[in-house]
Design a protein that fits this description.
- The protein is of the alpha/beta class.
- It is built from 10 helices and 9 strands.
- It has a 6-stranded parallel sheet. It has a 3-stranded parallel sheet with strand order 1-2-4.
- α1 crosses α2, α3 packs parallel to α4 and α8 crosses α9.
- The longest helix is centred in the N-terminal third of the chain and has 18 residues.
Length: 263
């Protein structure tokens, strides 16, 4: 399995606090069946001013530490890119990081408030030749009122990436509801750990993969953690990848009344 979203680099943002934590997180990932991780610290102006060169060097340094410790995990570069006015230009100029130096990049929308013209910002990056992966849409506080925006983005070519813990209920019923709805409606392309630490945010994918396999089938689950992630690493065209699949409109019940889209 490949984990495309992990805050594994020590002391660089709100992820692993030190090298010991990074090494232990890496061991947990390997034990869970992960062979490759994209180290994706935040690039968030005013909070985490991580530069592309700094991230690349930190990945090189951590890979050397993993190799020395005998941890069989391969690392690649990336970042959790936050919304900025010149996002397409930042990607084109290399100030904002893509995954494995290719066309794909992680895009984390603002968590608490829906930004104006979000879709336009995403489409601008696509017009510039990049392929956005929207991270943890199921955990956004505003998804209830703007679920139609996520649907539009997914159907227009952006990829949606769920956090593994959301699927298994680690982030609560609300995130689990939206995860299951997006899965059922065929909007989900990837699963990643978004791991930060050794407590509640650990780098494990297998439980979520099992849950998706039970819901959509084994092939759909493997496409989310092997087929499409490998295409990202290889910088393959999205057209070469299997499309996202679902099982039709999700059955609505009690949670639909609390979390259902009002947009």
């Amino acid at each position: 399995m490949i984990d495309l979203h992990c805050h594994l680099l020590p002391g660089i943002d709100d992820g692993a606090t030190d090298l010991e934590t990074s090494l232990e997180m890496a061991r947990i990932a390997v034990e869970d069946g992960v062979t490759l991780i994209a180290c994706t610290p935040h690039q968030m102006p005013g909070y985490y001013e991580n530069t592309a060169s700094g991230i690349r060097q930190a990945v090189i340094d951590l890979q050397a530490q993993l190799d020395a410790a005998g941890v069989a995990l391969r690392l690649t570069t990336g970042a959790d890119v936050h919304l900025v006015p010149d996002m397409a230009a930042g990607l084109r100029e290399g100030r904002l990081m893509t995954l494995a130096n290719g066309r794909y990049f992680l895009f984390e929308p603002p968590h608490n408030t829906a930004p104006p013209r979000l879709a336009d910002a995403v489409f601008d990056t696509m017009a510039a030749g990049f392929h956005p992966i929207i991270t943890h849409p199921e955990r956004l506080r505003w998804i209830e009122d703007h679920y139609d925006t996520m649907t539009l983005l997914a159907k227009s070519g952006a990829w949606m990436q769920l956090t593994a813990g959301s699927i298994t209920g680690r982030f609560g019923k609300r995130a689990q509801y939206w995860s299951e709805r997006m899965l059922d409606e065929g909007l989900v392309h990837l699963i990643a750990s978004d791991a930060h630490n050794l407590r509640a945010r650990i780098p494990k994918l297998s439980s979520a993969v099992e849950a998706v396999a039970q819901r959509l089938g084994e092939q759909a689950a493997q496409d989310m953690v092997v087929t499409r992630p490998w295409a990202v690493i290889e910088n393959a065209s999205p057209s070469e990848c299997p499309p996202a699949v679902g099982r039709g409109p999700a059955k609505r019940g009690f949670w639909s009344g609390l979390f259902g889209s009002r947009g």
